[in-house]
């Protein structure tokens, strides 16, 4: 999906279940992931879940909702889209 001002993503990066998850938002998810990798912030984490929104406020509200959820709820959310915890960055 080509980034522009009407694309906002909520994402979850992680290596595997029972590990720390990184939850955030980005306007240009591909660029954001590349930047995180170049800064070595991902520590072998991969994109395991994302949602697309056309309004930034909606994406930020969803990010907050996911962050306030329990780890088990977040694992179930990831597995609903990506049961094998594959790296989804190639799908962008």
UniProtKB/TrEMBL annotation:
InterPro entries: GIY-YIG_endonuc_sf, Phage_T5_Orf172_DNA-bd. SUPFAM superfamilies: GIY-YIG endonuclease. It comes from the Bacteria. Gene3D superfamilies: GIY-YIG endonuclease. Residues 9-77 form the Bacteriophage T5 Orf172 DNA-binding domain. This is GIY-YIG nuclease family protein. It comes from Pontibacter populi. The lineage of its organism: Bacteria, Pseudomonadati, Bacteroidota, Cytophagia, Cytophagales.
